[in-house]
Amino acid sequence: LNDTNPRSLIVRLCDVLSSLRIHGVVFEDDTRSEAVAQILDFISAQTSVPIVGVNGGSAIVLTPKEKGSTFLQLGSSTEQQLQVIFEVLEEYDWTAFAVVTTLFPGYEDFVDYVEVLTDSSFIGWEHRGVLTLNLTDDPEGTRLRRQLREVSAQIRLLYCSREEAEAIFRAAREAGLAGPGYIWFVVGTNLGGSDQLPE
User: Fold this and answer.
1) How far apart (Å, rounded) are the C-alpha atoms in residues 199 and 197?
2) CA-based angle 49:62:184, to the nearest 5?
3) Residue 145, Cα to own-chain centre: how many angstroms?
4) Which residues of the chain have pLDDT under 70?
5) pLDDT of residue 189
6) Which of 54, 73, 92 is the endpoint of a domain?
7) What is the largest CA-CA distance in the chain?
8) Where does the Receptor ligand binding region domain start and stop, copy by copy (predicted)?
9) What residues make up the domain containing 29?
10) Claim to verify: residue 142 and residue 169 sit in the same structural domain
11) Which alpha helices (H) appear in the chain, and where do they start and end?
12) pTM (2 decimals)?
């Protein structure tokens, strides 16, 4: 299904489900739209057909899912990504870090989970604060560059959307914060795909 607009996706899936004896659906797309996952979750809950999302928007992990949904997504949650990142930080003895987020949905949970990981650890983490960015009303990125310079840690955990990440890294590059000596870990459920963030 190449057309992933909501109406076409729902109509095509319902046509397939009503015309064939199907025991389950494996779904892959190359979008990064969470709307695809929400539609598949809804269809699974309404039809009781198991759906497995393996790539793209269908694999963006949703929590919570619709009641009665049997929608399985093969992607990693924000919590799983953070657990791996903290193991890397521990391995290299990078204990001082700062958190940078936007107002992207789930940012408060992200910040809370970072606190859970650091508070429940025997490692002497040096959490240097949280910077929450509001990218609206700053088209030139002047305020963004200034705010990024105020972060004192060289290691930064960033939670945002893909589009926001592009703007943040552009501003970080312009502010001299994306070169040697700075380590950014980008966390989120919608950042995957074959395209890379700009260098």
Assistant:
1) 6
2) 145
3) 22
4) 1-4, 189-199
5) 61
6) 73
7) 60
8) 33-187
9) 6-73
10) yes
11) 6-19, 34-47, 78-91, 107-119, 142-149, 162-174
12) 0.70
